[in-house]
Predict the structure.
Amino acid sequence: MTAPFVTNLRSGSDRPIQVGNGDGQVLRMRAQVASMWDAIRIDASPEATVREVKLAALERLVPDSFPPDQYAVKLRGFEVLDENSTVTDAGAVDGSIFLILDRRRRPTR
């Protein structure tokens, strides 16, 4: 994915969420919570952690959700095992999409 593609797609808010220190380079990404079928735009510094991105997405899209540890984060189809790593160490680039999903299956109602 490219940054223009990611920033032009429909997302839950017109303004992106700022994650990290906001100084210098910015990675334009999206985070999608699978159970909500919605996504948000995120502008993150390369030093921001995957956990910060996950918490920002859950806070915006699912404020009354389960504890954050009950959600997994995937990037390019693979689970990010160390959420304390930076987004660049996890392999994110400008235009990346983080998928946040329930760690365990839950019954539908």
Q: What stands out?
A: The chain has one domain: 3-102. The two ends are 34 Å apart (CA to CA). The first helix runs from residue 3 to 8. The chain is about 20% helix and 30% strand.
